UniProtKB/TrEMBL annotation:
Pfam families: 7tm_1. The chain crosses the membrane at residues 26-52, 64-88, 103-124, 145-165, 191-217, 242-265, 277-298. The keyword Transmembrane helix applies. It is a multi-pass membrane protein. This is Melatonin receptor type 1C-like isoform X1. It is found in: Cell membrane. PROSITE patterns: G_PROTEIN_RECEP_F1_1 (PS00237), G_PROTEIN_RECEP_F1_2 (PS50262). The lineage of its organism: Eukaryota, Metazoa, Spiralia, Lophotrochozoa, Mollusca. SMART domains: 7TM_GPCR_Srsx. InterPro entries: GPCR_Rhodpsn, GPCR_Rhodpsn_7TM. One of its GO terms (molecular function) is G protein-coupled receptor activity.
Length: 337
């Protein structure tokens, strides 16, 4: 909580020990947030450029990764900056900036919801492609995928606008030290947003990946019975690596956001220690800088693309690559044969 809030609550002057204790709480948060801003801003910009300039990465499902990168970029480069301002200056900074604080709270939740929606869209995209391939071309054309990506923003905005109703609110939260939606305004509203905005997408994503990996398991069993089909086995292995990368995005998101969702639902009477709240929100926002790390760690195409961007070789790559499309039909035939 900010220093002015402490003064009003305790009705006493702050001592050097008070200031030191406050600093000890917020300094780690500020350091983590600054690192998130730098990594998230550059990492997500690199991700967008990598997909635009690398033909191997310009696939239908990566439309959702670009959409995800934009949502994470907005959190990293905009929301997190005001999180630092809120942590350092406290509520007094937003005293005459109520409209700005409400917009930050609104925009933050929209971007975070859209991030998860895109991760869910990627999982569902791969589920249809692998398990119900005959429907894939009719559902996920480039144009339809773009419309779906835009629709995710529309849905995120619609879901967040319930906080403008009498049972919701936005404002500066003295426990998280940032402008955010008011989780204490109404228990029903908190349950509604947490279940529909977080829990349901997590369930859909989990089921999608379970079905996908089960499908890959069946395909591997079939190929093991025919050891001469080494080429198909190699293709299957490559496809599994891609799925592992995409699944890692979901795991990272769940690890970062589920603690916050649990705390928001559990602390009905707002009695939890402020440190629990501030670090749960900080860790949740860290997710916005981790996805590029997942790409570089798990995907060779992204590693090469990031390197080319750093060396300003994007245009050279665009001219050199003639035929780099992913052999989706071959993957499908392996999982079905």
């Amino acid at each position: 909580m900010d220093l002015l809030y402490w003064m009003k609550t305790n009705n006493t002057w702050l001592t050097p020990d008070d200031i030191f204790a406050h600093s000890a709480k917020i300094v780690p948060v500020i350091v983590i947030t600054i690192v998130s801003i730098v990594l998230g801003t550059f990492g997500n910009i690199f991700t967008i450029l990598a997909i635009i300039f690398t033909k191997k990465l310009r696939t239908t499902e990566n439309i959702f990764l670009v959409n995800l990168a934009f949502a994470d970029l907005f959190v990293s480069s905009f929301v997190n900056i005001f999180s630092i301002a809120g942590a350092i200056a406290g509520e007094v900074y937003f005293k005459d900036k109520r409209a700005l604080c409400e917009f930050i709270g609104f925009f933050c939740l929209v971007c975070c919801l859209v991030s998860l929606f895109n991760i869910t869209a990627v999982a569902f995209n791969r589920f249809i492609f692998i398990c119900h391939h005959s429907f894939y071309r009719s559902i996920f054309t480039p144009m339809k995928s773009l419309i779906i990506a835009i629709g995710l923003w529309v849905f995120g905005i619609m879901l967040e606008t319930v906080n403008f109703m009498p049972w919701g609110n936005h404002g500066y939260d003295k426990k998280t030290l940032t402008c955010i939606w008011d989780r204490t305004a109404s228990l029903g509203n908190t349950i509604f947003i947490t279940i529909l905005g977080i829990s349901l997408p997590v369930v859909i994503t989990t089921v999608s990946y379970i079905m996908i990996f089960y499908h890959f398991y069946q395909a591997k069993e079939r190929l093991n019975k025919n050891r001469n089909e080494s080429e198909k086995k190699n293709t299957l292995q490559e496809s599994k690596k891609l799925m592992t990368t995409l699944f890692s995005l979901f795991v990272v998101f769940a690890v970062c956001w589920m603690p916050y969702a649990f705390i928001a639902l559990s602390d009905i009477h707002d009695t939890f220690n402020p440190l629990v709240h501030i670090y749960s929100v900080t860790i949740a926002h860290v997710n916005s800088c981790l996805n590029p790390v997942v790409y570089v760690t798990n995907n060779e195409h992204f590693r090469k693309a990031f390197k080319r961007i750093l060396l300003f070789q994007c245009r050279d790559e665009q001219r050199k690559v003639a035929n780099c499309s992913i052999q989706e039909t071959q993957v499908y035939s392996i999982t079905k044969n």
